[in-house]
Amino acid sequence: MPLRVRAGTIHAYPLRPDNRRNMVTQRFTKHFGVMLDNASSMAVQLGAEAMLVLLDGACDWERLKERIPVEVEHVIVAADNQADLEGAEDVGLLPLTLNKEGSPLLERLQHALLEAVADGYLRANSMVVSLYSGFDHSKI
Questions:
Q1: Cα angle at 21 between 121 and 136, to 5 degrees?
Q2: What angle do CA 106, 34, 83 make, to 5 degrees?
Q3: How far is the first Cα of the chain from the last one, in angstroms, to the nearest whole number?
Q4: How far is it, in rounded angstroms, from Cα 24 to Cα 84?
Q5: Beta pairing class for 128-131 and 94-97
Q6: Worst-scoring range by mean pLDDT, 44-53, 67-76, 114-123, 131-140?
Q7: Which residues pair with 77 in a beta bridge?
Q8: Which residue, 66, 55, 68, 64, is CA-closest to 23?
Q9: pLDDT-derived band at 15, boundaries 50, 70, 90
Q10: DSSP per-residue string spanning 20-59
C-alpha cells in the first residue's frame, strides 16, 4: 500500500517501487487546481512576466499547462530532480532542476528564482508569481 502524506493543499505520493527512487508525484488535486487558478489570475492581473511553480515531484504537465491562461507567457516549473521534470518542456513549460533536495523551502525558492535568471528564463527584477507548498511533506 503506498504511503499517503498530506501536505497542506498539495499531496505527495511516492511512485511505485518499479519507478525511480526518491521521486514523488505531485498529484493534481482539486485544491492544487484552485491554487493554480488563483496564482494564474494574480499573474494576469499584475502583468507578471512569469509564473514559477515549485513542485515536490513530477506532475501532469498537460493538465497544469491547460489551467494557466495564455496571457502568462512564461511558466517555470521547478523540482529537485531532473527526472521529475521529464515531459514538462514538451508541453511548453520551462523546466528548472534545483538539485536542492532536503533544503529549506525558502532556500529552494530563492535558488529557483536565481537559476531562472541565470538560465535566461527571467530578466533581473522581473515580476514573478510563485506557487509552492508551505508545508514539508516529509515532516509532520
A1: 65
A2: 55
A3: 20
A4: 8
A5: unpaired
A6: 131-140
A7: 53, 95
A8: 55
A9: very low
A10: -TT-EEE---HHHHHHHHHHHHHHHHHT-SEEEEE-SSB-
* Type of residue found at 139: K
Tell me which long-range contacts 111-120 makes (C-beta under 8 A, separation of at least 24). Answer: 112/52, 112/54, 112/76, 112/78, 113/52, 115/78, 116/50, 116/52, 116/76, 116/78
- Give Cα separations from 39 to 14, 50, 127 (angstroms): 26, 11, 13
pLDDT surpasses 80 at 7: no
Which residues lie closer than 8 Å to 17 by C-beta, 6 or more apart? none
Partnered with residue 58 across adjacent β-strands are: 25
